[in-house]
Automatic annotation (TrEMBL):
Keywords of the record: Chaperone
GO MF terms held by the record: protein-folding chaperone binding; unfolded protein binding
Region (Disordered) residue spans: 178-203
Biological process, per Gene Ontology: protein folding
SUPFAM superfamilies: Chaperone J-domain, HSP40/DnaJ peptide-binding domain
Entry GO CC: cytosol
Biased composition range(s): Gly residues: 179-188
Taxonomic source organism: Salpingoeca rosetta (strain ATCC 50818 / BSB-021)
Protein name, entry field: DnaJ subfamily B member 5
Superkingdom classification of source: Eukaryota
InterPro entries (UniProt xref): DnaJ_C, DnaJ_domain, DnaJ_domain_CS, DnaJ_subfamily_B, HSP40/DnaJ_pept-bd, J_dom_sf
Residue intervals of the J domain: 8-72
PANTHER family listed in its UniProt record: DNAJ HOMOLOG SUBFAMILY B MEMBER 5, DNAJ HOMOLOG SUBFAMILY C MEMBER
Record flagged with keyword Chaperone: yes
Length: 379
């Protein structure tokens, strides 16, 4: 019996034949970031990216991996059944196929949301229906990892509901999917023809109003989404309902985006829409956010501003802190350390206290005016 070469895919990912699922994911993340054609402009980047994606696709599927370990690539190409969903009838059984769209699908499972959709910026009419379902308190301890290609954006581990915990308010990761990537790789034999880039799904964007208190403490918000699915054969449209969970870490900023790929409508033979939630800060009557700091203004009577006083400064979320001051002017700003918004890597911003000096509501009498002139210098 001829020898079977069943180490190639393991070598492509740089893992041992006994590699665990976690080992495979770690290897794929590292290599995909290095060789993605929209990040790496070298001539061999596309070919390497396709090879990495194909190797992960096979080894991460228990059935395909079993066939590959026993028969090598020949087994996948017709020598044995693969058991996977992406197969077609072949001379010796089922034939495993893999193309550029499959590589994109895997990439988005890791870096762009749930599998089955790409990132694009074209949200608008005709999107799925949204309804706020329920609102919770503290978020789960486990947080989503950051997008490795930008200062913000989504990082998703294979197929879970997506959530972003970035400090930044812009999601520039979508630009990775803005154009063609050249020839579609992944062919097992012969030279692959140049193919058009896969059709990009529409992104439907909705705002999620969140209070400043919840941005400070963290939150969990569940959004009920109604999506329409059109049967490709009959054209009939069915409506389903799903709940998407948006979690914000303590200190998350307004403008942060949470993308759920493939969770929207699927109509007119187009790819399933991506749903993107954007946090919107509700106006607060007492506080304003300034980066990681919180700003508030305390009213002080003129006599206290001149003579000094102790004021109780409210804190965001409840409670107060006393501040003793000898003199207060309209330009006075006091800092209460650590009472601002939580920071991603520990610690917190500050509470900045400004003062609104209140003048008497009634005019002074002539005697009062003379008394003020006697005690206050004109300079």
């Amino acid at each position: 019996m001829p020898s079977v070469n069943n180490r190639k895919f393991y070598d492509v990912l740089g893992v041992a034949p006994g590699a665990s699922e976690a080992d495979l994911k770690k290897a794929y993340r590292k290599l995909a970031m290095k060789w993605h054609p929209d990040r790496n402009k070298s001539p061999e980047a596309n070919e390497k990216f396709q090879a990495i994606s194909r190797a992960y696709d096979v080894l991460s599927d228990p059935e395909k991996r079993k066939v590959y370990d026993m028969y090598g690539e020949e087994g996948l190409n017709g020598g044995a059944p693969t058991g996977g969903p992406r197969t077609s009838a072949g001379p010796g059984g089922a034939t495993y196929t893999f193309d550029a769209a499959d590589a994109d699908r895997i990439f988005r499972q890791f870096f762009g949301g749930m599998g089955g959709g790409g990132m694009g910026m074209g949200g608008g009419m005709g999107g799925p229906g949204f309804q706020s379902f329920s609102f919770g308190g503290q978020p789960r301890a486990k947080q989503a990892r950051r997008n490795p290609f930008g200062s913000s954006g989504m990082f998703f581990g294979g197929g879970n509901s997506g959530m972003d915990t970035s400090d930044d308010s812009e999601d520039d990761f979508a630009s990775l999917f803005g154009g063609a990537r050249g020839p579609g790789g992944g062919c097992s034999r012969g030279q692959c023809p140049r193919t058009a880039p896969p059709q990009q799904p529409e992104v439907v964007q909705r705002k999620v109003p969140v209070s400043l208190e919840d941005l400070k403490t963290g939150f969990t918000k569940r959004m009920r989404v109604q999506r329409r699915i059109q049967d490709s054969q009959t054209g009939a449209i069915t409506t389903t309902s799903n709940i998407l969970t948006v979690e914000g870490r303590p200190g998350v900023k307004a403008g942060t985006k949470y993308t759920f790929a493939g969770a929207g409508d699927e109509l007119n033979a187009r790819p399933r829409q991506d749903i993107q939630f954007v946090l919107e800060e509700k106006p607060h009557p007492t506080f304003k956010r300034d980066g990681d700091d919180v700003v508030t203004t305390v009213k002080v009577p003129l006599v206290d501003a001149l003579c000094g006083c102790t004021v109780q400064v409210p804190k965001l979320g409840g409670g107060s802190v006393p501040l003793t001051l000898d003199r207060i002017t309209p330009q006075t700003v006091k800092i209460v350390a650590g009472e601002g918004m939580p920071k991603r890597h520990g610690g917190a911003g500050n509470l900045k206290v400004r003062f609104d000096v209140q003048f008497p509501a009634q005019p002074l009498t002539p005697d009062q005016k003379q008394g003020v002139r006697n005690f206050l210098p004109r300079a």
